[in-house]
Specification:
This protein is of the alpha+beta class. It is 18% helix and 29% strand. The strands form eight sheets. The chain has an eight-stranded parallel β-barrel with strand order 21-22-25-26-27-28-29-30, surrounded by four helices. An eight-stranded antiparallel β-sheet has the order 31-32-33-38-35-36-37-34. Strands 6, 7, 10, 11 and 12 form a five-stranded antiparallel β-sheet that branches.
Length: 721
């Protein structure tokens, strides 16, 4: 006979009583559902678990499952053994259910003799919502790992965060993220989603690009999920800093056609042989992080981790770096941490929160926020922002195998209002923090500050209270040298200014300063290229050629790391604009000037083994004639033949066939370079610069003297065999 009753716990039980040989057998009832179904991940999707109050041969169990109101499926459960006289049964789905899915299920037991026992939770199926589980993987941003794609973003004031993208038909609900400690949110999404586009949806309405997106469609487009294969880098060792010859380059204008789109990584590659032939050992790239629009210098970073899309994709940038390395050329990247944006800036009020009119979680929200470019100075004192900027610096160095960083306007990191306002202690601490991280990981990679305030603490070690930079752009060189070669009247040139510019050495190390006469700032913003400044509208004039190359010769012979700006080597005229590409035809027209730069670079590198002193720390400007407008200086490393170098610079329009100066030793001093050589330009006078013999007789504080010949607005370089 069969009977039906409710058990003491309210579970529905079916009991059949059968008389056999005076024995009474009771069919089992469910006595518990152990745990609830929960979503974990693809390797552990969760398990349905039950107990029955009997355990005997011929017993079976199954579970019926329905997901999001779909069709029911029935799955056999596995016997798990006897537990206190009860039988344990489990079923583990072969695939995980998406977070947020509604899962309905019931249990059914039966035996080989036709007994059936149902448990449907007192008449209602069990219902469970698959749990949202935060990712167990470490990292920020979006990345592919083990066949799945992980997303993690910092949004401490958000109530909900979801990721919408081309992989889920831009659904705002399909892939919610889970709140974690510290204000981050994360989720693992099934499948390799590389190449798909995405955005974060905050509180259901606020659509934001990923602040750590490593690729974007454009500055106002979508983030792109990247998972690049391991790049096969060429073997390369970063040159010693004493061997750096820097060429400042803007990818968008380095090689392009007028009226076309900006240049690209690939178009720049096609002109790298030009730099190799000159002997350039490093390119310093104007900022390449995604900026607003297609035309820009790059000092308005909208997406700090994404290479500028108009230049190509991240793999194109890697190709550029590798092609440079194959030619012995290091790559230094300009980074902008004094402000972000200000336009096309998804980080502005990223999670919807802000104080007053300020920018929210990534930015200072007080007097420290304003910069010359808007209220977008990052909050250097907030741990998450410090980590963000540190990770960005290391990203450019590591992911793209670059050799150093140039930091834009560090004065606006450490102070308010270009140094005219209050100090920002957190900014100084940030620079120390990142430079320590770089030194710890890759001490040979150079970190250069552009501060231009003559603060020697920038290049002191952090242990000595310094900011830890390896070098800095030197305003004490560029401004007096540039001013004195641009000055139209010889009598107004100040040789004592020139002397001080040449002789300066920061913190006892010549490599602590980068010296130049042209940079992106010095040839724009109300200024022009040096040849243009010398004679506006006539940059190819004799005066422009002579005095601009005079300045260049001092760049390569003075203590410091020499730098030239793109096109300087072939007398590029006008001013620098992001819509005006270099005119490479001038490299042919003025091939002799290119040769002059090549010769100067070779001498600076001591390629001929006769000018080692140009790489040394020693400098003595021993001769200053402010009346005749000449200076002479001695450079040395260890001293002696092939090491000691004498440089004579004539800042006047008068040439001299016999001009007496001091020398550090006797013997024959040979002319290694004469900027007035007619081989550099047919218009040059080929003034007779001759080898000379130094003899005993004190001059300029030295024990020996000799006569030299030097042309107008010219430089000669002498050394001994």
């Amino acid at each position: 006979m069969f009977g039906t009753r409710m058990n003491a716990t309210g579970w529905l039980s079916v009991v059949a009583i059968v008389a056999t040989s005076s024995q009474v057998f009771a069919f089992p009832s469910w006595i518990g559902v152990y745990g609830s179904y929960a979503h974990h991940d693809a390797s552990n999707p969760g398990t349905f678990t039950i107990l029955m109050n009997q355990d005997y041969y011929g017993l079976h169990a199954e579970v019926g499952v329905r997901v999001n109101g779909g069709s029911w499926t029935t799955h056999q459960m596995s016997y798990g053994g006897n537990t206190g006289g009860n039988s344990l049964w489990t079923y583990t789905p072969s695939t995980s259910y998406a977070p947020g899915s509604t899962i309905e299920y019931y249990f059914h037991g039966y035996d080989d003799w036709g007994g059936h026992i149902y448990d449907n939770n007192g008449g209602s199926n069990y219902t469970h919502t698959a749990s949202l589980i935060a990712s167990s993987k470490s990292g920020m941003g979006a990345w592919v790992d083990s066949g799945d794609t992980t997303f993690r973003v910092w949004a401490p004031n958000a109530t909900t965060v979801a990721v919408a993208g081309s992989f889920n038909s831009w659904s705002t609900t399909a892939n919610p993220l889970v709140s974690e400690a510290g204000g981050t949110w994360s989720v693992d999404v099934a499948g390799d989603q590389r190449g798909e586009t995405y955005k974060y949806v905050i509180d259901g309405t606020l659509w934001k690009n990923d602040p750590r997106a490593t690729d974007v469609t454009n500055s106002v487009g979508e983030s792109i999920i990247t998972a690049p294969a391991s790049y096969s880098w060429s073997t390369f060792s970063t040159p010693g800093w004493q061997d750096l010859i820097i060429y400042e380059m803007h990818i968008g204008t380095y090689n392009d056609s007028p009226g076309g789109n900006p240049g690209t990584w690939q178009s720049a590659i096609s002109k790298l042989d030009h730099l190799e032939d000159m002997g350039i050992t490093a390119v310093e790239l104007l900022p390449v992080a995604e900026f607003a629009g297609d035309y820009s210098w790059g000092y308005n970073p909208a997406h700090p981790f994404a290479p500028e899309s108009i230049y190509g994709d991240p793999e194109d940038m890697k190709d550029f770096v590798d092609e440079c390395h194959q030619r012995g050329i290091a790559v230094i990247v300009d980074v902008v941490y004094n402000h972000l944006g200000p336009s096309d800036l998804d980080m502005w009020r990223f999670d919807g929160s802000s104080t007053g009119s300020y920018g929210g979680i990534y930015f200072f929200q007080d007097w420290r926020a304003p910069t010359p470019w808007g209220d977008t100075r990052p909050d250097y004192g907030r741990g998450e922002v410090r980590t963000f900027l540190k990770d960005n610096a290391l990203y450019w160095l590591n992911e793209f195998n670059t050799d150093g960083l140039r930091w834009d306007s560090t004065v606006n990191i450490r102070t308010q209002n270009n140094g005219g306002g209050g100090n920002i202690a957190d900014g100084w601490s940030l620079m120390q923090y990142i430079n320590n991280e770089i030194d710890s990981a890759s001490s040979w990679k150079i970190s250069i500050a552009e501060d231009l305030q003559n603060n020697d603490y920038l290049t002191k070690t952090t242990g000595a209270g310094g900011a830890g930079f390896d070098s800095q752009w030197d305003a004490d060189f560029v401004h007096p040298i540039r001013d004195n070669i641009i000055e139209s009247t010889d009598a107004n040139r100040d040789m004592y200014e020139v002397r001080d510019a040449i002789a300066k050495i920061d913190n006892g190390d010549r490599l602590k300063r980068v010296i130049y006469t042209e940079s992106h700032d010095e040839v724009a913003n109300g200024h022009s290229r040096v040849p243009e400044e010398i004679w506006p509208g006539n940059a190819s004039s004799w005066y422009s050629k002579k005095r601009s190359t005079l300045g260049a010769a001092l760049v390569f012979t003075s203590p410091g790391i020499p730098m030239i700006f793109q096109g300087q080597e072939f007398l590029e005229d006008g001013y620098f604009a992001d819509t005006d590409p270099l005119d490479f035809s001038k490299a042919t027209t003025y091939s002799g000037i290119v040769d002059m730069y090549t010769d100067l670079i070779g001498l600076r590198k001591n390629s001929g083994g006769k000018t080692a002193g140009l790489k040394g720390n020693g400098v003595n400007v021993h001769h200053v004639n402010d009346t005749s407008k000449l200076v002479a200086f001695h450079r040395w490393d260890s001293g002696g033949s092939g090491d000691d170098v004498i440089v004579v610079a004539n800042f006047s329009g008068t040439g001299y066939s016999s001009y007496n100066i001091g020398f550090p030793s006797s013997g024959t001093w040979k002319v290694r370079f004469n900027s007035d050589w007619s081989g550099y330009d047919s218009g040059f006078g080929n003034w007779y610069a001759y080898d000379t013999v130094a003899s005993w007789g004190a001059k300029d504080g030295m024990s020996y003297n000799a006569n030299v010949g030097i042309g107008p607005y010219s430089v000669i370089i002498l050394s001994k065999d």
